[in-house]
């Protein structure tokens, strides 16, 4: 048994995940009644969600407390990359929606959820998350609040003794080790998630929304494979695709099935470590990216809003379209890092065109119907680009300040 486990662990994690993916599909087709298999996926996502808040708190606290004066963390560049990508995603989605207009059949598509009343309410919600009780922030996985407390405690502990700082480092290392153990279970978790997705949701209900899905997924692929690589190339002046594909493979694949940027934080932390990035930087940029780097959400908001606009025959001029791009980017930053978090921001964008809340909520209902694919692709784009832009900023900094070459290939085996 020990020899089998040793041989299993010697196989690349990505290959094991693909094996789990194939097993999930086969089991769903052969024994769809074996509902216990889906439990593996639920347990895996729950384990990631459980460890992520503690990991973020300890990593950020340790990084700030042990930060040496005069050492730059490059966060400004990363924030600029996050903002640029999200805005360009919204702009691209608007352009694609005009090139391939979609009309919706919204009768009966309803939801009881309550959307935010306006952009002020979204920003207000973000501010309240910052001042949340630390215990409640950990319990509710409020990463904005966790980041705020971790930064404050880290700054307060900068003057602490070496033993205290060493304890923080040991604590973050211990939780990081637990994360590694959890990630080793990813093949079984993916198998359970795929099994559940196929047996419960199926694909038959999505056929009526095929064109909308094609526009959404196509636009997200355009961002992932064209826009983001162009951004990376501008900063690195090297072939961006080895890094892009590595991030999609290692981070995007897991995020596709967990459908939660928050749950994928430990996966991204591990990938940053494998890429040799600055821990002081990625310990802050990755959890921050899980809350504000939402290119996929900007695509969803723009495409579904303009689908409602085209359905109602509302004329949209260039200026209004540009405002929608900006509004979707800002709104996306307020989307929660959980499954379906971006959909409730659609009524906010619809209000720009005078669309009533009743109709807007029907659009949200359509979003939930296609959410099996839409939200998976959205999360994969969001989460993988957190690592992509953190790595881009880190490599660009090394090239500028140390004159180190940036490799055209990234080996993650």
Quick summary of this structure?
This protein has 413 residues and is mainly α. The chain is 73% helix and 0% strand.
Task: Summarize the topology.
Elements: H1 2-10, H2 13-30, H3 38-65, H4 75-99, H5 119-130, H6 134-139, H7 143-156, H8 162-184, H9 186-201, H10 210-236, H11 241-258, H12 265-274, H13 279-292, H14 295-312, H15 318-332, H16 346-350, H17 357-369, H18 371-402
Helix pairs in contact: 2-9, 3-7, 3-8, 3-9, 3-13, 4-10, 4-13, 4-14, 4-15, 4-18, 5-7, 10-14, 10-18, 11-18, 12-13, 12-18, 13-18, 14-15, 14-18
Regions with little confidence, pLDDT below 50 for 5+ residues: 107-113, 406-413
The 3D shape can be described as: globular
Structural class given helices, strands, pairing? mainly alpha
- What count of helical segments does DSSP give? 18
Order of helices and strands: HHHHHHHHHHHHHHHHHH
Overall mean pLDDT: 79
The radius of gyration over CA amounts to 21 Å
Instruction: Sketch the major β-sheet.
Output: none
Number of strands: 0
Proportion of helical residues: over 70%
Distance N terminus to C terminus? 24 Å
Strand content: under 5%
Structural commentary:
The protein is an all-alpha fold and 413 residues long. Helices cover 73% and strands 0% of the residues. It has 18 helices and no strands. The chain has helices at 2-10, 13-30, 38-65, 75-99, 119-130, 134-139, 143-156, 162-184, 186-201, 210-236, 241-258, 265-274, 279-292, 295-312, 318-332, 346-350, 357-369, 371-402. α10 packs across α14 and α14 (295-312) packs across α18. The longest helix is centred in the last third of the chain and has 32 residues, at 371-402. It is globular. The two termini are 24 Å apart. The model is unreliable at 107-113 and 406-413 (pLDDT under 50).
